[in-house]
Amino acid sequence: MTEHDLTLVAGSAETSCGPDVVELQHLIDGNWTDSASGETFERHSPASGQLISRASRGDASDTEKAIAAARKAFDDRRWSDVPGAERARFLNRVADLIDTNRTRIARLETQESGKPISQAEAEIEGAANIWRYAATLAWNIRGESQNALGPDMLGMVLKVPVGVVSIITPWNFPFLIVSQKLPFALAAGCTAVIKPSELTSATTVLLGQLLIEAGLPAGVVNIVLGYGDPVGTVMTTHADVDMVSFTGSTGVGKSIVAATSATLKKVSLELGGKNPQVIFADADLDEAADAIVFGVYFNAGECCNSGSRIIVHEDVADALNEKIVALSRKVPFGDPMNPETRVGAIISKTHQDRIDGYVRQAVDAGARVLLGGEALSIDGLSGNFYQPTVVADVGAQMPIATEEVFGPVLSVLTFRTFDEAIALANTASYGLSAGVWSDNVHTCLEFVRRAEAGTVWTNTWMDGYPELPFGGVKESGLGRELGSGGIEEFLELKTVQMRIGKTRQKWV
Ligand code: NAD
Prior knowledge:
Structural class: alpha/beta
Bound molecules: nicotinamide-adenine-dinucleotide
Strand content: 15-25%
Number of strands: 25
CATH architecture of the largest domain: 3-Layer(aba) Sandwich
Number of helices: 15
Distance between the termini: 89 Å
Helix content: 25-40%
Largest sheet: 7 strands, mixed
Strand order of the largest sheet: 17-18-19-15-14-21-22
CATH superfamily of the largest domain: Aldehyde Dehydrogenase, Chain A, domain 1
Radius of gyration: 24 Å
Number of domains: 2
Mean pLDDT: 96
């Protein structure tokens, strides 16, 4: 295959040209501040190579100041005493500001992450709606009462905010993921310290500006820019932090569990996935092929929900592969600033090499590349791109089939019986999401019951709604975000037992 067989979108002066360099500072106790050390770090566009942002580089002392501000703001109750209805109004104001600033946020998101601009705009729009959904929960925090404990007792269960929350986010959906956490934490009455990925700091800083514009009291949300070590390390070990809400790789997630154990913090983790889609012989192959292509190339495959592992009945494998390859050629790959583009740049050269390593390793082990399998050059852009890649004859134990490739690379495995399909689907140590394609509702339901995953899609892939919970089982995480339970992660139960009247039996 040559690159001419693909649909490529070249860079152009208008579409790839960056803005003036954006200068980013920490937000600590309501003030925008440089690092105590004066150090900074830079982010270049992974598509064009242009310098996009220069950020203050946080160290332990900056992080400790941010935690102290969040602690004080929680302990003096400046936010948790605000009535739920008013917190809800605040969250709705933020949502409106996100909408008003959508173009500005999306542009920066694309420039730092390399994702297509049309996708970034859709994500920012989706994020605003999550803030609105969280607002409905802020107005509805209800505990329980227990009125059957006998004539002289009344029991109550209050829901109280957890306290100071460290929020740590990855680079692949920077604005969306902080929006899956922060509005729920604020709805609950918590205060927060946020650390975005060092590769995509800018839009979290923009969010900080919108929070201030919407009237958030100083210290309630603090942002520290910088690296996992030292910023993330301090955020996960400091005694004044009550909870860590983390989205990122399973490896770092496990190290966070270890780091938080000394102070026994509440931890919620959204980690990696190696998500199978099982295609039965009676499935609508055109529908399935389209969803498969979307599932694997969306966000250049740099997606925890990437549908990167297809398990197809051997009777229809060739027919499905043919459709997938034909559709893959039509997907516009290239300049992320062009509104026509569906797949943009790979986040870094190191990551691109890692993706390629998985493909090389699979080929060496006997797999067959049906399409792609190499880095891609895009005219007018010097950044990192990878060809849409389909690899067939993949063995169940190959790393390409069990580990997160996090690139536009599809692995195709085959099966003969339902039990074989389920066994293959459940092989990975991950359990984030899974999908089934069949015209038979019984097959779909049986699959739903037996798939080890936090989310199962039947005859569709990667739909998402703020009102439905999201999270993983096995090594894909702990806890759930979104849905009505999204706020529960940030609430503790407090039991109250009240004696009514002077009926208590004396002990001595
Ligand atoms: P990563 O784990 O390398 O980094 C995530 C964040 O953790 C970054 O902000 C990083 O600076 C910080 N960090 C790194 N080391 C740390 C430490 N020791 N202590 C505290 N913080 C530390 O992940 P990434 O490469 O940014 O993102 C990709 C990963 O995220 C993939 O594995 C993907 O599956 C996962 N992800 C999961 C979901 C989900 O909802 N399940 C969503 C998006 C991404």
